[in-house]
Amino acid sequence: MLLTGMDAPTTNQPMPEKYNKRLFTPGPLNTSVEVREAMSIDMGSRDPAFIKIIQQTREQLLRLAGLTTSEADYTAIPMQGSGTFAIEAALGSLVPRESTLLVLINGAYGHRILDIARRLNIQVDYLQFDETQAVCPQTVRDYLSEHPEVADVALVHCETSTGILNPLQEISHVVTQAKRRFLVDAMSSFGGLNIDVTTCPIDTLIASSNKCLQGAPGLGFVITRVEHLRMSKGRCHSLSLDLYEQWRGLERNGQFRFTPPTHVVLALHQAIEQLVAEGGVETRNQRYENNQQLLMSGMNQLGFQAVLDTALQSPIISTFHMPSDPHFEFERFYDLLSERGCIIYPGKLSHTDCFRIGTIGDLNDNDITTLLQSIRECLSLMQVEF
Ligand SMILES: Cc1ncc(COP(=O)(O)O)c(C=O)c1O
User: Fold this and answer.
1) H or E element that contains 227
2) Which of 157, 159, 186, 319 is the S-S candidate for 190 at Cβ 3.0 to 4.6 Å?
3) 251 Ramachandran zone, left/alpha/beta (phi>0; psi -120 to 50)
4) DSSP state of 340
């Protein structure tokens, strides 16, 4: 879907204020002033000060996963690029080619894992669930008991294509009791939902800088067991996405092997400090929950219908059915909201006409109230009735 917008500036002028909008999207998201200021420093990638920041950021990431840095079992490896690059690095490096990977799918990001695995010539199988239903732990248990060839299982924690929250804790226990390795795409949940690897066993967790951690886009990371990394030496299909080599490089001299996104690393470091100052993941989760609940009740009052059952809904992003009134045209709705400083997101479901509104990033109840007020104005301008 091509979304129209205001023309980009063509000169060297500073970015006009009109581009500064509230992003009700799954990311990139609104960042704090402090995070943006952290990016105003040009740091040398081999400078000891930057090397220290990389080290601290890796330790901060482990702590956020419930791991102490003295625990040598796990390590956090930053990887240049968006979240998908980190997923591709993890699959390409950590999944053996002799056994089978089982992908649990209930949305577009599960399909993406399957696509990546196929490209990498990983033997792969999948269990497909309805896009509006959570992955079922019992189905996974039954499948694993009948398929000894499966050695690894992959799950998307929060399927951002709908906002559905999969039962991570239950599935992690099913997978680890069945003695398989568990890989989790926690791209849109890490930092916004509590994930403690010590009580919710996960072998590999993948996320990125620009979602619930509220940093800038450009960096993914993989938190994984050192033991699995060691076994992955020489396996990766790619030079730049080789997680083992990235880890060895970081352990050797604290540096990225290839040019790191220095500004993005500085932003992430600052963003995690602010997450801790906010009160940690629990407090952030509460803010996101408040945002989502306020949004949902406001949207219901306006006449919109949510696609998901409340029990399955994450605080990350919500999906709404398009109104049936022919006056409602999503492109116009998007543009009118954008003119009012609010950016929403198109839908990503195979069979349902819908759109999405995110509730994460540097947003609070005032922002949600502003959005709801703007939606009301737009509906009235478009003469939409429910
Ligand atoms: C659950 C999930 N996985 C993977 C991705 C892909 O991340 P990226 O777009 O940063 O490559 C996203 C992006 O929204 C996501 O939400």
Assistant:
1) helix 226-231
2) 186
3) alpha
4) T
Amino acid identity, residue 384? V
Is residue 170 domain-resident? yes
Ligand 1 centroid, distance to 229 Cα (angstroms): 23
Ligand 1 pocket check: which of 105, 109, 135, 164 to mutate, most ligand atoms within 8 Å of Cβ?
A: 109
What's 321's domain CATH number?
3.90.1150.10
Q: Give the whole-angstrom CA distance, residue 328 versus residue 323.
A: 7
User: Could you read off the pLDDT tens digit of each residue along the chain, which spans 386 residues?
Assistant: 445 555 566 667 777 777 889 999 999 999 999 999 999 999 999 999 999 999 999 999 999 999 976 667 999 999 999 999 999 999 999 999 999 999 999 999 999 999 999 999 999 999 999 999 999 999 999 999 999 999 999 999 999 999 999 999 999 999 999 999 999 999 999 999 999 999 999 999 999 999 999 999 999 999 999 999 999 999 999 999 999 999 999 999 999 999 999 999 999 999 999 999 999 999 999 999 999 999 999 999 999 999 999 999 999 999 999 999 999 999 999 999 999 999 999 998 878 899 999 999 999 999 999 999 999 999 999 999 88
> Is 87 found in the same domain as 20?
no
Q: Are residues 256 and 365 in the same domain?
A: no
